[in-house]
Amino acid sequence: MTEQSPALDNLLTESRTFPPSDEFAGQANAKADMYATADADREQFWAGQAERLSWDTKWSQVLDWTNAPFAKWFVGGKLNVAYNCVDRHVESGHGDQVAIHWVGEPGDTRDITYAQLKDEVSKAANALSSLGVVAGDVVAIQLQMVPEAIFAMLACARIGALHSVVFGGFSPTALRARVDDAAAKIVITSDGQYRRGKAAPMKANVDEALQGAETVQKVIVVRRTGSDLEGETPWTEGRDLWWHELVDGQSTEHKPEAFDSEHPLFILYTSGTTGKPKGILHTSGGYLTQTAYTHNVVFDHKPGEDVYWCTADIGWITGHSYIVYGPLANRVTQVVYEGTPNTPHEGRHWEIIQKYKVSIYYTAPTLIRTFMKWGEDIPAKYDLSSLRVLGSVGEPINPEAWIWYRDKIGANKTPVVDTWWQTETGAIMISPLPGVTAAKPGSAQRALPGISAKVVDDTGTEVPHGGGGYLVLDKPWPSMLRGVWGDDERFRDTYWSRFSEQGYYFAGDGAKYDEDGDIWLLGRVDDVMNVSGHRISTTEVESALVSHPTVAEAAVVGATDPTTGQGIVAFVILRGNAVDGGDDAVQELRNHVAKEIGPIAKPRQIMVVAELPKTRSGKIMRRLLRDVAENRQIGDVTTLADSSVMDLISSGLNSGKEE
Ligand code: PRX
């Protein structure tokens, strides 16, 4: 195990538990016996969950794991994912049910029923087909949280094209790398986006990204900010098309074709331990089965009764699995909010919950901690009594935030589900069941029925209760990634080589069992940082820094941060001819990283140093840098090539500190 931060250590002393009320337990979708049923026959259990969906052709085999780690689930089955998320709800008589209460940041709203969703998705599917998009093609989508993002994703699914959604905050360079890697044929974006009350350009960035991009034939542009954005939207004749001109006139009739259960559904890029993001590939039948199942049991969702709100962005896996696929497959009525939580005021989320009577709310610890900072008097002004389940995702939630969440938002009665999963797992893997589990603040507790997770030591042996080690998934699961786009070797190396003898998937997280055998997540054990629930690799930021002409060398670490979980701290050595590392130089480097990757990767702090601590073999000792970044006493320096280096660095501790 690598070092744990003191905050994580503290988690382990938590001993309060919160069992569900009898009333909640009595009406819950998932009951305690589900664990035993799933254990008795896993494949039978998953077959039962797949029955939630509508299949054109039933599968002949639940799981084919003979070519591990390349799984096939529901072999031979055929279905259309978009039909399952939309049409079948209309066919079952729920066309008038609101699927999406959309709330724009400036205050405009749109309620979209399932019948309307079906029309919009069908029109968009016809539009994509009219441009020559066929099954297997890749469509890149860079959009903020507008309904068209969801229409576009479902339209791709409907015609068997893969979407690759790129977070709206990613830079042109990051977008381009993703477009090229997947050879995207179409890019969908908008003229501009509202962010913190202002219209900011979007299309201009996309144009910059696509200069010379050979695979892209058309760019479809949603009009969102219109005249609120200064200047004309830049336009490339022959390549660019307005969404409304292309889509609005299309027929609302579109026959969904059934695709193989293993037909690719989407690629989503995520940071790994190298500078190059990985295109995580997900397929259809297994992914939809597990997202729908988990949305049902973890959130206790009741179609037609609950109003659900997941605050994630569509650019991340949580937006894919718990805004689009799982919830819509389950006939959700959900809120989709475009903007930031403090625009125009810090009570925006609570105002929305009050207005739409949101009953299930799913967000990230970093936001909960931000709400805590803003003060409990803000949520106290709103009627939040509709809430009955609260969820958390993205990083370990500290007990203090957990208790605050339950107490101040959930009136000290709603179950809180801390859900552990990853882009790669596709759906929730470890989480309490709200009607079954006596919840422990700070622990994700136990693998869901049908899922198997273990904490093991270096040799792959399960650790005893009370012991810590590495989190592994020791049995295949339906929504597992099917590979890294275009790179089978990287797929095997990254996830399956560490415990290849046992055939375990290594998640990259450290974890611990408590005395009851409940699982506590302890953060990443590799060079991946978790900043506000977003994964960023240290190498990615280092590459961005050294791409600046003044930087000779850079080392980046994730340092514990009270709000964002981790903050990015960079140590840089400037080139001999570069001017000294004053505030301007540091600011310029921070901006450079934002430009190369996106504002989420902007280092919190950059320290200009003369040397980096290295072992005699030249390996940078990040552990020591983390000590510095977290203001801890420097650990053991005996393996350093030059032990005076750390004194030099520590003495410059506060230089370049931001904000
Ligand atoms: O370190 C774990 C952390 O987030 C990583 C996955 O990041 P990403 O693929 O971006 O997906 C985030 C949303 C599913 C994990 O390896 N993580 C996620 N959820 C939790 C968590 N750490 C602790 N507790 C969680 N509930």
Task: Summarize the structure in words.
Mean pLDDT is 92; it is low at 1-12 and 654-659. The strands form eight sheets. An eight-stranded mixed β-sheet has the order 12-11-8-6-7-14-15-23, with helices on both faces. A seven-stranded mixed β-sheet has the order 5-4-17-16-18-19-20, with helices on both faces. It is globular, with a radius of gyration of 24 Å. Helix 3 packs across helix 4 and helix 11 (285-298) crosses helix 12. With 659 residues, the protein is of the alpha/beta class. The longest helix is centred in the first third of the chain and has 17 residues, at 114-130. The chain is built from 21 helices and 30 strands. It binds adenosine-5'-monophosphate-propyl ester. Adenosine-5'-monophosphate-propyl ester binds next to helix 12, strand 20, strand 24 and strand 25.
The CATH topology of one domain corresponds to: Rossmann fold
CATH architecture identity of one domain: 3-Layer(aba) Sandwich
Main sheet overview: 8 strands, mixed
Biggest sheet: strand arrangement:
12-11-8-6-7-14-15-23
The stretches of 5 or more residues where confidence is low (pLDDT under 50) are: 1-12, 654-659
Number of helices: 21
Secondary structure category: alpha/beta
Radius of gyration: 24 Å
Distinct small molecules bound, one entry per kind: adenosine-5'-monophosphate-propyl ester
- The amount of beta strand, in percent, is 15-25%
Roughly how many Å apart are the termini? 33 Å
Can you identify the CATH class of one domain? Alpha Beta
- Topology, number of strands: 30
Helix percentage range: 25-40%
Shape: globular
